[in-house]
Design goal:
Layout lengths: L5 E7 L14 E2 L2 E2 H11 L4 E6 L3 H7 L6 E4 L7 H15 L5 E6 L7 H14 L3 E6 L2 E9 L3 H4 L8 H7 L4 E5 L10 H23 L1
């Protein structure tokens, strides 16, 4: 089996305007969304992991202190998610020239797992696909893997349009990997409340099964 070097970019620069507080630091499963995302990414043993910081950078940095990651500050984070993607890609290309694929993750998709990220990598290794994207709610999105043939196009993204634009452009060459509940993110206080309520309900159901 050929050894392919994969880099991961975790986008954690958003200003969380809709929720009104840094969603990167919201508690979830005994951790925070950003720390949990870092741990998942690290567990896949990438050749490099870059966390792009922006809003609340010092607080987020303190939360993931001690992790073996590369922290990059995006001074243009207010200009949209594309600027953070460019920031992460530029860093990887400068410091990890041997990277052959880049996986883009966000920190507010609570149902992403180590197994899912590994499936993206494994599918690319088997097929040599240009894009391996997550499939949910009748769409393709992140987490998504991009082969080096598309690195330049990643650096050309602009505005508040993220990786989905590139996935749509190359849809015919993209492979889809199902991600259950991938459409659930934490953009509002209501969404976070529903997430926590769902988590508590699942714990209670599991406990009832164990007690029966």
């Amino acid at each position: 089996m050929k050894n392919i070097q994969n880099g991961i970019i975790l986008l954690a620069a958003g200003s969380s305007q809709r929720i009104g507080r840094p969603k990167q630091l919201l508690s979830y499963h005994g951790s925070t969304l950003v720390r949990r995302s870092v741990q998942i990414a690290e567990a896949t043993n990438p050749a490099a992991l870059v966390v792009v910081l922006g809003a609340a950078a010092d607080l987020v940095k303190d939360e993931i202190r001690g992790q073996k990651i590369n922290l990059v500050y995006n001074p243009d984070f207010k200009n949209g998610i594309a600027s953070s993607i460019r920031c992460g890609v530029d860093y990887l290309l400068k410091h990890y020239a041997a990277i052959e694929n880049i996986i883009i993750m966000v920190c507010d998709q609570p149902y992403v797992s180590k197994k899912h990220i590994n499936r993206l990598m494994e599918e690319q290794r088997k097929t040599d696909a240009k894009i391996v994207a997550s499939s949910y709610a009748d769409q393709l999105g992140v987490p998504a893997l991009f082969n080096k043939t598309l690195f330049n196009e990643l650096t050309l993204l602009t505005g508040d349009i993220g990786a989905k634009k590139l996935i749509q452009k190359h849809r015919a060459e993209a492979i889809a990997i199902p991600l259950s509940y991938g459409e659930i993110d934490v953009d509002t206080e209501e969404a976070y409340t529903r997430l926590i309520a769902s988590t508590i309900e699942k714990k209670q159901l599991k406990q009832r099964k164990n007690d029966s």
